[in-house]
Design a protein that fits this description.
Number of strands: 17
Distance between the termini: 71 Å
Oligomer: single chain
Keywords: ATP-binding, Cell membrane, Kinase, Membrane, Nucleotide-binding, Phosphoprotein, Transferase, Transmembrane, Transmembrane helix, Two-component regulatory system
EC number: 2.7.13.3
Catalytic activity: ATP + protein L-histidine = ADP + protein N-phospho-L-histidine
Organism: Priestia endophytica DSM 13796
Mean pLDDT: 88
Number of domains: 5
Bound molecules: adenosine-5'-triphosphate, magnesium ion
Subcellular location: Cell membrane
Length: 606
């Protein structure tokens, strides 16, 4: 989170508001006080001057009215004395004028020369005409002065005037000092306010930054911190509530985490694949089995469309997928083998009914489908294999019944055919029985310790003697005996089928090679022919039940397609392996292995 800048901080705002408040208050009080004070001072000053001038006017009138005899001081001298007594610091100049505008005396020494001269200034004129002049003016030096002129009245009317100039500078100087005191007081109070503001802001911001730090820690998953409670005011209560909230959150988080773990372990340990999407159909969760089933890496498919992931973009939209009631069957190819999944779709609904996404559960039904298909194919094959000889027999028997039995030439041939077909059916049924016993493990291997080379030679000899075609047998067998444990009947059956196949599919004059190669743990038995071979893609399939490369031809040769299937079961029962190698037109080799040593504790019953 970003750090709070100083100018945005509560600290700053608090201090600023405090300072402004105090500033406004002091300014208002100060302005009001100073103004009142100034008014008062000026009034007082004016009153005191007026009173003093009145007293002076009275004294001057007395002097002027007095009769003087020879030898007495002159009127001018008397008045000059009066003025001298009257002089004070704030009064800068006083002059007395008689009714003829003639200056009788001045207080100021510098203005002595004006004595005896006429003064016809406005204030003097006004005073001599009986009025009073009282005004403020600024003199040449820039000083503020109060100018007062009053008449000197006697019973005969105005007999003179007094002119007075008083400096107001000392009064203003006083006001200036008061202002300075105010300014200093304001500054001091602002400083104190700022300090108080900082302290007060701290009591609020400290728990708040504590809570902020804790919220940040909580976001990181650390619930161990606690906010310090500084007091039981509103902020203290908030801190307590915050601590409670933290505890509750911690509990809720632990519960959620537990649930999440449970869900995760259920999802990973289940065999079915599970995919969850958001409400737009984008993958938000996919478990390991689903990733494996769809052969995708879980990280890369997150937020991919479910339709694309399941490859059903052409058939469905997200809405039609939601409406789909049945589960979908998805067919894929995995390592060139069909891979079938059943997908069940269910919506994730909120209480309001709003669909938040879907859950798709994938179930691998390849094996089940394969078994079902094999079962169907098997039933079809068996019925087909039985119907062919039966229909043949029926037509021959019908012909016989219709009179062919009397024909000495045809009748034995027809009976011969029905007998061959019956034998074929018996062989087929026997083969099927044997396979069914092997499927249900209802058989017993009667193993005996026998020299395999000797045993193999005997079988080859039998075929050598009875073969009707001109086929060369080549034996590549080791000299010495190789004694192993096996069920002679079963392995005879296996070899019979392999060798008869080799002969069956070999051309006239072909070569069949028999070999045995002892290895460390097993012997490798191979029968190689130079016959027609098997197309590459079909080589693996010849071990399947009823599988024949060329159905029409093999049926002619009398095969049912069960021989190699039985051989495989038997070799596997001996813990060996069987496989084929073939090149079309060049020939086929069938290999199988038999273990050299049988484990001691192995059960004879399989
Ligand atoms: P059965 O053995 O039951 O009489 P079959 O010989 O047709 O009938 P399998 O032995 O199981 O059945 O063989 C399956 C198929 O494999 C045969 O039909 C044939 O097409 C093919 N096959 C087996 N061996 C050879 C071989 N040596 N050369 C060419 N094709 C072969
Ligand atoms: Mg065969």
């Amino acid at each position: 989170m970003k750090k709070v800048r100083f100018f945005q901080s509560i600290h700053f705002k608090f201090v600023l508001i405090y300072i402004l408040l105090i500033l406004i208050a002091t300014q208002i009080i100060g302005a009001y006080f100073v103004q009142k004070q100034e008014e008062n001072n000026i009034t007082n000053f004016r009153n005191s001057i007026n009173e003093r001038v009145d007293v002076l006017a009275y004294s001057v009138e007395k002097e002027m009215a007095e009769k003087r005899s020879e030898g007495d001081p002159t009127l001018e001298e008397e008045i000059a004395k009066l003025l001298n007594d009257f002089k004070s610091e704030d009064i800068s100049e006083i002059s007395v004028v008689d009714k003829n505008h003639q200056v009788l005396a001045v207080s100021n020494y510098d203005a002595k020369s004006t004595v005896g001269k006429k003064s016809i200034t406005d204030p003097v004129n006004k005073a001599l005409s009986g009025g009073t002049y009282n005004n403020m003016m600024v003199n040449k030096k820039g000083e503020r002065m109060r100018v007062v002129a009053v008449p000197v009245n006697s019973s005969e009317g105005t007999i003179g005037a007094i002119y007075l100039e008083a400096s107001m500078e000392s009064l203003y100087e006083q006001m200036k000092q008061v202002n300075a005191i105010f300014a200093k007081g304001t500054l001091l109070s602002l400083l104190l306010t700022a300090i108080l503001g900082i302290l007060l802001a701290r009591t609020i911001t400290r728990p708040m930054s504590d809570m902020r730090r804790q919220a940040l820690e909580m976001a990181k998953g650390n619930f161990s911190r606690k906010v310090k409670v500084y007091g039981y005011d509103e902020i203290g209560q908030l801190a307590i509530t915050f601590n409670n909230l933290t505890r509750k959150l911690q509990e809720a988080q632990a519960t959620t985490e537990g649930e999440r773990r449970k869900l995760a372990s259920v999802l990973t340990n289940m065999t079915d694949g599970v995919i969850a999407t958001d409400r737009k159909g984008r993958v938000i969760l996919i478990n390991e089995p689903a990733g494996q089933m769809l052969d995708v890496s879980r990280e890369t498919v997150l937020s991919e469309s479910i339709l694309r992931l399941l490859n059903i973009e052409k058939e469905y939209t997200f809405d039609t997928l939601l409406e789909e009631q049945n589960s979908l069957i998805l067919e894929f190819d995995k390592y060139d083998e069909p891979y079938i999944l059943r997908a069940t779709v269910s919506p994730i609904q909120k209480e309001t009914g709003f669909i938040n996404g879907i859950i798709v559960v994938l179930h691998d039904i390849t094996e089940q489908e394969k078994i079902d298909r094999e079962r169907r194919e098997f039933v079809a094959n068996v019925s087909h294999e039985l119907r062919t000889p039966l229909t043949t027999m029926r037509s021959y028997l019908e012909a016989l019944a219709e009179g062919a039995w009397q024909d000495k030439e045809i009748a034995p041939r027809f009976l011969d055919v029905t007998q061959t077909e019956t034998e074929r059916m018996i062989r087929l049924v026997n083969d099927l029985l044997q396979l069914s016993r092997m499927d249900s493990r209802d058989y017993h291997l009667t193993k005996s310790q026998v020299d395999f080379i000797d045993f193999y030679n005997h079988i080859i000899d039998r075929f050598d003697m009875s073969k009707s075609q001109n086929i060369e047998f080549v034996r590549k067998l080791p000299e010495g005996p190789i004694s192993i444990q096996f069920d002679q009947d079963k392995i005879t059956q296996v070899l019979d089928n392999i060798i008869s196949n080799a002969i069956k599919y070999s051309p006239e004059g072909g070569k069949v090679t028999f070999s045995v190669q002892p290895q460390e743990f097993f012997i490798l038995v191979s029968v190689k022919d130079e016959g027609m071979g098997i197309p590459r893609e079909k080589v693996k399939k010849i071990f399947e039940r009823f599988y024949r490369v060329d159905k029409a031809r093999t049926r002619q040769l009398g095969g049912t397609g069960l021989g190699l299937a039985i051989a495989r079961e038997m070799i596997e029962a001996h813990k060996g392996e069987i496989w084929a190698e073939s090149k079309e037109g060049k020939g086929t080799t069938i290999h199988f292995t038999l273990p050299l040593q049988v484990e001691q504790d192995e059960d004879e019953w399989i």
